[in-house]
Amino acid sequence: IFLTPVKRHINIRIVVRNFISISTTTINNIIMYNSRSRHEIFSLLAVTIAAIVLVHQPATVRCADGGIITPQQQQQQTMMFTAPTGYYVSTYDHIDVGRLLRNNKVVSGYVKCFVNEGPCTPDGKLVKAYLLPEIIRTVCGKCTPRQKDMARMVLKHIYTYRQADFEKIMQIYDTDGKRNEILAFMNH
Length: 188
Description:
- By secondary structure, the chain is mainly α.
- It folds into 2 domains: 3-56; 70-186, Orthogonal Bundle (Antennal chemosensory protein a6).
- Helices cover 65% and strands 4% of the residues.
- It has 9 helices and 3 strands.
- The longest helix has 24 residues, at 10-33.
- The radius of gyration is 21 Å and the shape is globular.
- The protein starts with a strand and ends with a helix.
- 14% of the residues are buried.
- It comes from Aphis craccivora.
């Protein structure tokens, strides 16, 4: 299963907002000049409401098999990784990141998983669907000091040795425009 965050680009939001504005004006004109039937008015109103819902719809994760992971499911899964202290649980803290990064085959496998170019291990699926998007969105805000060090090592490695893959990851997961904050975090 490949998971892909559904991105909401700002230019789409602007187009939809403009559409809503135009639709509202059109509805007012229709009502004032009574030039169309009630059916047309309600159809246009329904399209306007659908556009409003689209603008305010939170990002979801779509699976290649057609399944969808809702923001609520993402939050529940992320909570599984969060300890009562508010930090992520220490499930992966024992991993020797340096050793892992020296194994190009393993790194390639995970990167391909994260950028939708290859299969994912069970751990890769969890990281891809829940942790990676949140870590980038919050700039590792719930990470313990150990986890921040691990995240920095991985991000620096990918940025330094796999620049194209780093760009793909940021394009997919940086939906909130945190690139500069991520770069500052890496160099902290």
